[in-house]
Design brief:
With 231 residues, the protein is of the alpha/beta class. It has two domains: 143 residues, HAD superfamily/HAD-like (Rossmann fold, 3-Layer(aba) Sandwich), CATH 3.40.50; 69 residues, GTP Cyclohydrolase I, Chain A, domain 1. It is built from ten helices and six strands, in the order βααααβααβαβαβααβ. Helix 1 crosses helix 2. The longest helix has 35 residues. The two termini are 34 Å apart.
Length: 231
Amino acid sequence: MTAPQDVVFLLDVDNTLLDNDRVITDLRGHLERQFGSASAARYWALFKGLRSELGYADYLGALQRYRLDAELGQGSDLRLLQMSEFLIDYPFADRLYPRALEVIERLSSFGTPVILSDGDVVFQPHKVRRSGLWDAVSGRVMIYIHKEKMVGAVQRHHPARHYVMVDDKLRILAAMKQVMQERMTTVFPRQGHYALDPAVVAAYPAADLSIERIGDLLDADIRSLFTPQDK
């Protein structure tokens, strides 16, 4: 455990700092163009099943299952394995939301920014590195399968008086807030398909602060997010 800090900003990646919906759109188009609709449909079916099983998106894991299908004679097109090159070489830095890196820099003047993301142990760290986010937070990166269940680990690695959690999923924000209570302020950027789904939004309590885009934090009163307010 390190020495306690005053304020730690916990920042999600997909659809919070990085437009992952755009990445998916690009990937879908690439699969259709290069390998045809049948191969693409089979890949996405495997991807969806694996996400339901694991609880997070595992693009490379879905490729592994696709290859197994082919080996078992399920008719999968082995050319689709070339998709790994597309994913590894993808320009993630170009998919950062406008001013995302500036937001991290500004938050650094008030506390310690930390990446807290869900994902697999290989591709998600690769995405964080290639996007420039790893360097932006000086390597303070935590990636878990279910980060909302890892509050204890977060506090051990980055003990603080107060935490500010920025995430596009109200489900995650609500779960973290339930554990940390008044020691956490939640910020909800309304970006990506989860944040814009009325049914999903209605299913969970509102965040302490809602913003339209991550860049809005450049104009927000950051100190008010962790300073007790007069009742």
